[in-house]
Design brief:
- The protein is of the alpha/beta class and about 150 residues long.
- It has one domain: D-Maltodextrin-Binding Protein, domain 2 (3-Layer(aba) Sandwich), CATH 3.40.190.
- It has five helices and six strands; from the N terminus they run H-E-E-H-E-H-H-E-H-E-E.
- The strands form two sheets. Strands 1-5-3-4 form a four-stranded mixed sheet, sandwiched between helices. Strands 2-6 form a two-stranded parallel ribbon.
- The N terminus is likely disordered.
Amino acid sequence: MRRITIIIALVFSITAGGKLCAQVSMSGVTVIGNKIGFSSNTSKEIKQIFRGKYANWSTNSQVIIVLPASKSVSAEVVATSIYGNTVSGVQKYWLSLVFQGRANPPVFLDTDEEIITYVKKTPGAIGVVSVGAQNIPRNMVIGINN
């Protein structure tokens, strides 16, 4: 019985690990930024930024990550496309980073409009909104190269 439990746990962890490590597409989202030092980047690098890898931009300003709140319409799309996870999985991920002192928490906002407004007025901010978001200034859109 113990052997079956271990095998089931092993299979489950491999399956779950495979999901987290799978190649994740950036479709369905638009990345926006304000004075972050680049106007385009690779999808891999963008994902690393949103996963808290960097504390400062090349311009020495602080990286401020802006994400949709869990009740936002675009939260699930962002969780899947950027993190390859669920909304609650993203929340747990950030709680872990913050409690370990490895990153500052992201700013969570309820709507695409709020995210656009916040990023627009905050130098160093990088955010993600749904592809159909309206009123995004062209100079804020970050091109994603695969």
